[in-house]
Backbone:
């Protein structure tokens, strides 16, 4: 049981930002990562479609015998995780925009959130914002067009820079001092974001917090892999695998990338 893999899925390559944090914190664990790039962006789909895609991905990972599922996608978490938790018996860890820490630390009491349409329009996002951001002005923007460009590997392109400038403008006009990245694809835009934002604006993403949560839940359920060897990692994508391979470049883990239809 304990030597089974951690299953991770996202609408594409973005969740590898979470996978990297998990691998860093839990280096002995095996992982299976599903990049459903064929169906990206999830953020433009209806809640029902997002639930169906999340079920499809979870079924794949359950068939592989995963002991825990990480929904490495804000859009799938905010639209489908309650449903998944009811339907399956393994623990699920999700990711949501980190409104709470930003709201607690903001001095200007103005926080920007960049996320997908699917996340920003979800009920879970609204209830979290209501609960944790009392007295805070939240300036939210949909990052329309960003995920498709990142899926093409164009993270340093002029198109990305232009879109970010457009989305950040109203936030800067409001004098935000925190920007919450509400999509697991966006940490890959950090170099451009850092160039576009004044130094006083802190950028928050939840990747490291998700990895900690995965560790805590594995420990609580007595599911930590006792192996002393570094974990192995299998990646699956349903489009050409070159972009996913690019996103994994430079990491030292042992891994395979396979393209297949799912
Ligand atoms: N990585 C997904 C997220 O965190 C991207 C969603 C999309 O495919 O639009 O929301």
Residues:
């Amino acid at each position: 049981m304990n030597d089974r893999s951690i299953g991770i899925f996202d609408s594409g390559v973005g969740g590898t930002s979470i996978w990297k944090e998990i691998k860093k914190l839990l280096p002995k664990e095996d992982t299976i990562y599903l990049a459903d790039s064929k169906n990206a962006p999830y953020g433009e789909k209806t809640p029902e479609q997002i639930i169906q895609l999340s079920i499809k991905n979870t079924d794949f990972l359950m068939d592989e015998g995963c002991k825990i599922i990480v929904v490495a996608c804000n859009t799938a978490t905010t639209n489908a995780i309650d449903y998944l938790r009811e339907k399956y018996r393994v623990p699920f860890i999700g990711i949501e925009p980190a409104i709470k820490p930003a709201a607690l630390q903001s001095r200007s009491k103005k926080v920007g959130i960049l996320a997908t349409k699917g996340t920003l329009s979800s009920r879970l996002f609204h209830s979290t914002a209501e609960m944790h951001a009392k007295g805070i002005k939240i300036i939210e923007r949909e990052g329309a067009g960003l995920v498709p460009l990142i899926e093409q590997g164009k993270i340093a392109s002029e198109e990305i820079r232009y879109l970010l400038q457009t989305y950040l403008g109203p936030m800067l006009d409001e004098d935000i001092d925190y920007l919450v990245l509400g999509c697991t694809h966006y940490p890959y835009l950090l170099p451009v974001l850092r160039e576009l934002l004044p130094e006083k604006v802190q950028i928050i993403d939840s990747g490291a917090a998700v990895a900690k949560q995965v560790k805590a839940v594995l420990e609580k359920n007595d599911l930590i892999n006792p192996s002393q060897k570094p974990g192995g990692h299998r990646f699956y994508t349903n489009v050409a695998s070159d972009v996913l391979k690019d996103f994994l470049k430079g990491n030292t883990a042992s891994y395979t990338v396979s393209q297949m239809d799912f």
